[in-house]
Specification:
Layout (H helix, E strand, L loop, with lengths): L14 H9 L5 E4 L2 H4 L3 H13 L3 E4 L10 H34 L11 H12 L4 H8 L3 H8 L6 H4 L2
Parallel strand pairs: 1-2
Helix pairs in contact: 3-4, 5-6, 6-7
Length: about 160
């Protein structure tokens, strides 16, 4: 049994899927709950179906056996459902981006500075003492750009400079 709890959006970033694809042999049967659990992209799903078929591996979808890849009708339905899953994912991302844009416009998407006044003072003292900025940034868990912004009191850190 191969199981993972990651998104099906990218077949290449799924370690257990890659292990399963390496493991399966002619005559095996891969059982998956539904097509969208195997892949969210139409091209990824169809490529996986073809890859399994090329190895002589049967593919069964537990929730809908009519989608099994061993019939022309099943392949057709898989193609349609994969396209719907891909559309759904893109629609969700569009809506998310719209929501973020609205929140930014309304001033509700501002993230607080990652460094507080004490951390900035500590960072400034360490940099003045000759510690490399890259090391200070790494120790504080921020990027060098964020560290520089805090030390220069720019961006979100401008308001902290007046404190």
């Amino acid at each position: 049994m191969f199981s993972e709890k990651v998104s099906g959006k990218n077949a290449h970033d799924r370690a257990q899927l890659q292990v399963m694809l390496t493991y399966v042999r002619d005559g095996d049967k891969v059982r998956v709950k539904s097509p969208d659990r195997l892949a969210r992209s139409t091209t990824d799903l169809l490529a996986l179906v073809e890859q399994l078929k090329g190895k002589g591996v049967a593919l069964e979808f537990v929730d809908n056996p009519a989608l099994n890849s061993d019939t022309p009708q099943g392949e057709f339905m898989l193609t349609v459902l994969a396209a719907i899953a891909q559309l759904e994912r893109k629609t969700i991302r569009e809506r998310q981006a719209e929501g973020i844009a609205i929140a930014k416009r309304d001033g509700k998407y501002e993230k607080a500075p990652k460094l507080d006044v004490e951390q900035i003072a500590e960072a400034r003292a360490r940099v003045d003492a000759g510690v490399p900025k890259a090391l200070v940034a790494r120790d504080l868990g921020v990027s060098r750009q964020r560290l520089s912004a805090s030390l220069n009191s720019s961006g979100k850190y401008a308001a902290l400079a007046g404190i």
